[in-house]
Amino acid sequence: MADFLWWRDGVIYQIYPRSFYDTNGNGIGDLPGITAKLDYLADLGVDALWLSPFYPSPDKDFGYDISDHKGVDAKHGSLADFDSLVEASHKRGMRIVLDLVLNHTSAQHPWFRESSANRTNPKHDWYLWADTIPNNWESVFGGKAWTWHAGRGQYYYHMFVKEQPDVNWRNPAVRAAQLDVVRFWLKRGVDGFRLDVFNVYFKDEQLRSNPFALHGIRAFDRQEHLYDYDQPEMDDLLIELRQLLDQYPDSYAVGETFMPTPENAFRYMGEDKLHAAFEFDFLHSKYDPAQLLKAIIDWEKLAEKTGLFPNYVLSNHDVPRTATRHAKGEDDARPKVMMALLLTMRGTPFLYNGEEIGQRDISLKRSELLDPLGKKYYPFHKGRDGCRAPMQWDSSENAGFTSGTPWLKLHPDYKTRNVEAQQKDENSLFNLTRKLIALRKEYVTLRRGDFIHLENTPKKVLAYFRKDKNETILVVLNFSNKIQSMDLPAPKWAILFSEMRTGKVGAHLKLFPNEVLVLKK
Ligand code: GLC
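A: This is the predicted complex of the input protein with alpha-D-glucopyranose.
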């Protein structure tokens, strides 16, 4: 464990604070609620908590439209609550990663209020303003990316909803103010950051129009996005950010890559840039070993070339949950296979709260939707409320999440699917998750050993070695509902993890439907 780096070798757990645990009965999760559940998280075995935004926000994009980057919204608690949370997490050996949204602010942010007041104020160029719409850029949340501001008599640019104006990162004063936000939280004891859509910060200096392309049905997808993200200026900024982070030993940044590919994620990673960047292939993959393997191999190839370490994500607050995507009914057989894959990869695993108990998305009627994306695109896109429903702690009213009225309705299955019930059930998804996290902690080979996939397995089986000089671990995952037979490359294997068998495993293996096996030579 000597060279254990929490952000590389650990498991990072995403908390969506609104939906985690409410201690004051306002129906919205809060920071004291996270503190109250730290023992649960420490017992699960995670190494770091990434907190989605809890800053003051008018909630046009549920916390991702921030009106004060250095505060805590009263509905979530106070700065004092935050300090207690950091202290209590550190005491249990868990790090805190904050979600920093620096591409845009809320339109209610004092910077935007000042900037939009007139064309001569000191912050007049802190956002992107234009007399006429300068190009064809579209908002990824629908509609033109330029909106008229009557007060100032100009258009301003927003990649997301119109209440989220993008700041002007080319302005040195803005750059300094943003880095000051980073410094503010580092000084408060934060260990790292998840940078929201960081590769959108810079737009083409000449504001050129994107050429036409056909990538999908939305207006946004009918362009080749040459000029509104992934601009060359990003690299220098990341270098500056990294120099700041490096003043705080052991600190970290992971970027949420906008329109990610392994190539652009890797472009932003490195010793002098981000520690990690997301690439979301697993989020969009089917329950299909061939597709998943391709995603792994894409990462692996780049990792080999660059010496950088991959990361894997199956669920987050923006997409339907793993269990919703892959499971049928209440059966957790498939979510277990996916969880086992995530936790035995050569790459940092990210878990999303509720994933460890296989929470399913809630379904909402159009009139119940809160997410701006769903409101805009329903029924083609039902929005992101589904995966943001409150955490299911127990079978009591509102799943023990709140004593008040929950801000978003709960999944009706909470009476049976909840943390308390799964803790008691030896073969629950929760216990599989907990055991595999512990195994990952025990075996350095599982964390960092090479990934070598086994060829010539049955089509529906994914099998791979995790291997280093002294140790060979073999993971076998049956992605089918049928028994699958295969030969293993050695006559005798000890079982490190199985729900279905004990003893040793021989050279010939009959896998049960959706079986998860972790073996050691
Ligand atoms: C990121 C967040 C998403 C948010 C968007 C705008 O993609 O994950 O929830 O809506 O950025 O801030």
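The chain has 16 helices and 17 strands. The domain at 450-520 is CATH 2.60.40.1180 (Immunoglobulin-like).
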